[in-house]
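For consistency, the fold was encoded as tokens, as this record shows:
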Amino acid sequence: MFRKRRAPGRRRWRWAVWMLVGVLVVAAGVGGVVVWQNTYALREEKVSLRHDGKLLEGVLARPETGDGPFGLVVFVHGDGPVDATHETFYRPLWESFARAGYAALSFSKPGVGGSQGDWLDQSMADRAEETLAAVAWARSRPDIDGRRIGLWGASQAGWVLPKVAARDRNLQFVIAVSPAVNWLQQGRHNLLAELRRDGATAETRDAALRRRETTLDLLHRKASFAEYRAAAGGTGEDMTAARWSFIAKNYRSDATADLRSMRGTPVLLVLAGHDVNVDVADTEAVYRRLLPAASLKVAHYPGASHSLVDHDLERSQWRLTLTAVLAPRKLYASGFLEDQSRFVQQLNTGQGTV
């Protein structure tokens, strides 16, 4: 009696089915990891603020449990069209503050994420007024402790934070992440640092510095965008009229006077070891010269880039993408998130150290 042989097509079909099942199981596992890693111990509430005739849309992220009143960290963005969550980049920070009993408040910039207006129309003074309005709005809420409100800001916020703290002497603290002091000095440092990083020749560097001087001369003369384009030729194609107007409003920004005026407010200055945007040595020297030692704490992260992302991670696009999806808290330099939480916790115990 002969055994019936299975058709090869059926064997292939069953193999394909089991392969598909395996892929689905793996995908479900990865999907579960992604959901878990991107779930934060927060209660997020969409909020809005009307300021200067425009509606700003934002997020209030409170600790996962409790009725408050909570302390509050008001976020002040860096350059660019930043939404309230900074494309989710802020959420690990919000969670770190929530562990210390602090809520976080962040509004999308004008013209971004439902907020009205155009952020490129703003001066640094305009941004400071907007932040003061956000603080005043927060103080009106019963779930926020008005005595425990502080600011967190990065990069370009370095020209906004001191203005706000100089005006509102009741702020509990300021956390300044990779801030610059002088716009023009920062721009020159950034240009030279990027040229060094890219291995530019001396001739390329000198040509870039000459173009910079030409641009500064145009700004000093209040030249139009058309004049800039004519002078820049093909090298100015990435500049828009709106961006030129924004630079013209702000290129004289310098935080020195405002830093003097905010003396006594507890400050955590956060500096990265691989910062091509900001001259961190100069920033630290100025902050130490102008602010009392008792109110200033400086935290260095040698392995971090300007954004406080791990420098080695940032240099690998595939690793950066995978980390952002699978383990977003690991994007930041080691210890950074924990130190943010510890700083505000210790303010409430009178220690105030990092």
